[in-house]
Amino acid sequence: MKSVYERVIARDPDQPEFHQAVEEVLDSLAPVIEDNPDYMDVVMGMVEPERVMQFRVPWYDDDGKLHVNRGFRVQFNSAIGPYKGGLRFHPSVNLSILKFLAFEQVFKNSLTGLPMGGGKGGSDFDPKGKSDSEVRRFCQSFMSELWRHIGADLDVPAGDIGVGGREIGYLFGMYRKLANEFTGVLTGKGISYGGSLIRPEATGYGLVYFAREMLSAKGKSFDGATVAISGSGNVAQFACEKVLDLGGKPVTMSDSGGYIHDPTGIDRDKLSWIMDLKNKSRGRIKEYAERFDGVEYTESEPEPNLNKLWGTKVDVALPCATQNEINGDEAKMLVDGGAIAVAEGANMPCTPEAVEVFLKNGILFAPGKASNAGGVATSGLEMSQNSLRMSWSREEVDQKLEGIMVNIHKNAFDTAERYGMPGNYVAGANIAGFLKVAEATTAQGIL
């Protein structure tokens, strides 16, 4: 395994996020390779994407000024189905981040049990502060290149950071015009043109379903539990909603400016207020502290200062903001604060040092490729509905989502036990996800 990792670094020395994702998976696969040495060839192939596209995206702002951004699509692995994964529009987007996300997506999609490969894409375009017309012009320019590389049976992108319903609508409209066809080539669409109910809620709901199963395996539950949530976007909002459904008490949320701590709990009325703040007026979370009594607001400090949010005394932590938001020292803060479980709602929000702290201290820890797979699982359900030319009810989709998350937990839990690492969901998820892809790869002779 060391030789594979060294080769990855040598080929792409400037891609630290990708290195981190690969190292975490390789560390888990040693017992699998011992049992089946032939899978070493599969590992060597799986750390290299099948295809990478990079292209320019020219667009004009409302003042007629030309801007040129970079667009990307990483099609990492299609052994078990069409490439599937989101598009991210954010200034931080680069090839390293997209390769890390696409690599993670391979295992995440495998765990869902649905026939989906792994991919990811996006642009360094920032939709914040842009008018609807500017976002539309950018999306149309972006799709004018991307459309030739995607398709319902080839590659089905979805949304991610910076790509919500508005952006998906503009992208789909341009694809439909260029391809002269109406197919389920994008997921996260509006209900009026092929979208699925529960898709906006899916990642947050799925996260809490997985955490519930993880707690249940230890004889615990969300009932009466105090919960720290980071972020205040889609995932955080619906994770908060589902925690309330299960009797828990969410006490924190955050954005790039800082975080709020509400000791009395973020109840349904307060959550509704946050949703209006973030989804309609696009305000800042500090306004919550100005609106409600007894709430403490703490501004973000420049790195490497510790994020004090994770020093809040809670039972469960759900990091839902972004990658590497909890480091080793912040993980120790959660341990010292009495946390019993951490489940990743964002993609790789915990550094390797943080994960090591959790595992050494017996904290239940769910890696994002397992716990936040609800979003892509429901995207897969949207693909199924599009192929069938029908729509399922909210209850049907939620029931299928819950079933998928319960099965992912069981698969990761049982696999960890089978390989002598009981309770280690990182190893269980990595191995379970890998085995399905490895078997399909070997069967097809694609090494």
Span between N and C termini?
A: 17 Å
Q: Determine the CATH topology of the domain at 202-366.
A: Rossmann fold
Radius of gyration from CA coordinates: 21 Å
CATH class of the domain at 202-366: Alpha Beta
In terms of DSSP E residues, the strand content is 5-15%
Identify low-pLDDT runs: none
Specify the structural class: alpha/beta
Order of helices and strands: HHHEEEHEHEHHEHEEHHEEHEHEHHHH
Secondary structure: number of strands: 12
Mean pLDDT: 96
Label the CATH architecture of the domain at 202-366.
3-Layer(aba) Sandwich
Describe the strand arrangement of the main beta sheet, using strand numbers: 9-8-7-6-10-11-12
Biggest beta sheet attributes: 7 strands, mixed
Shape: globular
The CATH homologous superfamily of the domain at 202-366 is called: NAD(P)-binding Rossmann-like Domain
Tally of DSSP helical segments: 16
Into which percent range does the helicity of residues fall? 40-55%
Question: What does this protein structure show overall?
Answer:
With 447 residues, the protein is an alpha/beta fold. Among the domains are: 135 residues, Rossmann fold (3-Layer(aba) Sandwich); 165 residues, Rossmann fold (3-Layer(aba) Sandwich), CATH 3.40.50. The protein has 16 helices and twelve strands. Helix 4 packs across helix 16, helix 5 crosses helix 6 and helix 11 runs parallel beside helix 12. The chain is globular, with a radius of gyration of 21 Å. The mean pLDDT is 96.
